[in-house]
Amino acid sequence: MRSRVQRQLEAEREGLPENTLPANFVFTDLHPRARDKRAEILEGLTQEQKFIDPKYFYDARGSALFEQITGLPEYYPTRTERHILQRNARAMAADCGPDCVLVEPGSGSSEKVRLLLGALEPAAYVPMDISADFLERSAIQLAEEYPWLCVHAVCADFASLDNLPPGLPANHYVIFYPGSTLGNMCPADAVEFLRRLGRWLDRDGGILIGIDLHKSTRILEAAYNDAQGITAQFNLNILNHVNKLTDANFDLNCFGHHAFYNEAKQRIEMHLVSKRDQTVKMGDIRIRFSRGETIHTENSYKYTRESFRKVAASAGFEIHSSWCDDQRLFSVHYLGLRGNSGKKDGKRS
Ligand code: SAH
Ligand code: AVI
Question: Can you tell me the distance from the alpha carbon of 290 to that of 304, in angstroms, rounded to the nearest whole number?
Fold first, then answer.
């Protein structure tokens, strides 16, 4: 089915007056090409420990499954972070400063930003996601609900985006990076990524970031092995997405979900375990699996305040403010560039 943005572009090309998109909505597509994705996936599947980058979880079905995960009783991060945002929106808005351009890498459903919009009143909101259709739908819905807000959606791989698209207001930028999505990178990549985000900011800018905290293995493993098996479906769906992107013939019945807490590395690891010896084809290429061999699909690092402070500091940031829930399950921090007091005058320097 063609998306509303595609229909609008076609109407414009044919000179038709019809405009079904909200006036406060812009969409920029910077999506990587299919050929590049195939090469990247194949490279991961030919390593000794086979892996697929977790960004490939998110086709339309993967995004919908993730939304289901966020409502599961075992998956504490979303409801806990929502509670923290709700309770502290005014203090967070004071740190962000007035009239910022709020950029959310990995915006998903754009649900959490709604908790801040009233207090923050940003000049523009830039949801950015790799899952094109889901991004488009979520961003249009937001633009329709908040007609005063300029919503400029960007479909991109945030890990390789050097510059934000032109056409955004010249106000200071604040990056909103909730959900502990940073935890899906290893600490060295997290430092590199935060540095990259720092290059989008001027001295008044900052990052409002959600970070999941280290806790008991029992709570963590339950969150990634829910009783309804939604996380298992989410994990397996990556193979469906890979089949669509490449011309692979992964059979989902031949793999099983496995998630555990690696205490030494302080990370949840998700794997897909081959149920038997098998060969998967990707075009002309054959990928062999022995029984019990795994594809590593995701890490989800859990931090202490101190281990996160070190990552932020290595990337040139200081923690200006921190918030967490009473049980210390999850944390949200406002990071400023090192050496900046955190005072805002609202103008881009
Ligand atoms: N920020 C939302 C969603 C978090 S889920 C929240 O906190 O609820 C992670 C989101 O990041 C998904 O929507 C996924 O599609 C997106 N994502 C993952 N890797 C990405 C990448 N490399 N580039 C852009 N988006 C990515
Ligand atoms: C998006 N990301 C922070 C989620 C996490 O918890 O690492 C993805 C997820 N994987 C399994 N459940 C949720």
Answer: 37
Counting from 1 in the atom list of ligand 1, the atom nearest the Cα of 55 is 19
Ligand 2 touching residue 298 (CB < 6 A):
yes
* Spacing, Cα 106 to ligand 1 middle (Å): 3
pTM: 0.95
Q: Is 193 left (phi over 0), alpha (psi -120 to 50) or beta?
A: alpha
Angle at 313 between CA 308 and CA 319, to 5 degrees: 70
Q: What are phi and psi of 24, to 5 degrees?
A: -95, 20
pLDDT of 281-299, one tens digit each? 999 999 999 999 999 999 9
Q: What are the pLDDT digits (tens) for 250-263?
A: 999 999 999 999 99
Ligand 1 atom with the smallest distance to the CA of 176 is: 1
**Ligand 1 pocket member 130 (CB < 6 A):** yes
From the CB of residue 133, how many other CB atoms can be counted at a distance below 10 Å? 16
Query: What is the rounded distance in angstroms from the CA atom of residue 242 to the CA atom of residue 321?
Result: 40
